[in-house]
Amino acid sequence: MRRETMVKAAIVGATGIVGQQFLVALKDHPWIEIAALAASERSAGRSYKEAITDASSGALRWFCEEPPVEEVMEMPVQNAIEMDISPIDIVFSAIESDQAKILEPKFAVAKPVISTASAFRYDDNVPILIPGINSEHAKLLEVQRKSRGWKGFITPIPNCTTTGLAITLKPIYEAFGLNAVIMTSMQAMSGAGRSPGVLGLDILDNVIPFISGEEEKVQRETQKILGNLEGNSIRPARFDVSCTCTRVNVREGHTESVFVSTQKACEIDDVASAMREYSGSADEADLPSAPKHIIIVLEDPFRPQPRLDRDAEDGMATVVGRIRKDDVLKNGIKYLLVSHNTKMGAAKGAALVAELLIRDGYIS
Ligand SMILES: NC(=O)c1ccc[n+]([C@@H]2O[C@H](COP(=O)([O-])OP(=O)(O)OC[C@H]3O[C@@H](n4cnc5c(N)ncnc54)[C@H](OP(=O)(O)O)[C@@H]3O)[C@@H](O)[C@H]2O)c1
Description:
Bound molecules: NADP nicotinamide-adenine-dinucleotide phosphate
Mean pLDDT: 97
């Protein structure tokens, strides 16, 4: 249902891949309206359409599957560092971490910032929220506000590779406990963004076996997201996580091969049922961007596939398949997942966090 007073949002990094996905996620949104766009000095002072038009070739560098959002094409793009945020209620940040370190605290002094960047994910009083998985961690935002003397706060979403992993581990962790998790990712090209992103000639006919800093991020974030809020910080979950992160020739949708060692023995059907039955709290399922099923389990042994499954529930569901026993690990189970990296893993996932925080009174 449409809110009487809409929440006014600024999108910082609006010209990039995630920024464009924000425009799509917030088009016709019932609670949030786009009130300002910002990017680097390069784009500042131009209309949005000019800013995403390649100066030499004239090509419109629109990335999303959905058509360009007409309503914003003539909006001006501001220089993020100079942006006046006084008329804004919330800032969505879709910039690289180096810039986020400078810009996000500047905004958070006065306004809530929901970030897709990693700059503050590992700070003590900063939650990494996935609504329906660890919504209760939002309480840390009050601690953050008080300790930093800010009116606003910074709340990052997870790295896009962590998202599907943490979501699918949650029901397993709750039902059977976890000793260890081993994950190998096959990550889409869009995950690297577009400035400059992955070069076509490097990825064509190829798999790139290293993504700088990614494995450490996924390991740390998974434990933090599934950890317990204790006092003024989160005690990370006590299971080991080991990852190998690779880049593959896929446009969108991260595929992950996951092996887990559970504390209690369990059968394949138990894991499939735990995942199917898990849907977060009913309240969160009602948020405008929430998927009906946060996890979808498929029986077909040739699924999930990024091309076929990334768009499930408009890119908001994590799709799981090939759940089977692993005889090498103690109480071993293994499966594959596909998660949409620029929707649930980025812009629409951040919109979902905003909805949770609006509903619970952290943003007005
Ligand atoms: N791609 C994904 O799947 C994904 C998923 C989850 C999280 N993330 C995170 O989301 C963030 C954005 O990623 P992306 O893939 O959208 O990158 P991108 O396509 O390379 O876009 C980068 C954006 O940052 C802007 N920018 C660059 N320097 C700036 C500055 N000094 N001040 C303000 N804006 C500046 C760019 O504006 P100009 O056009 O003016 O240069 C552009 O809008 C990153 O932190 C990334 O790690 C990405």
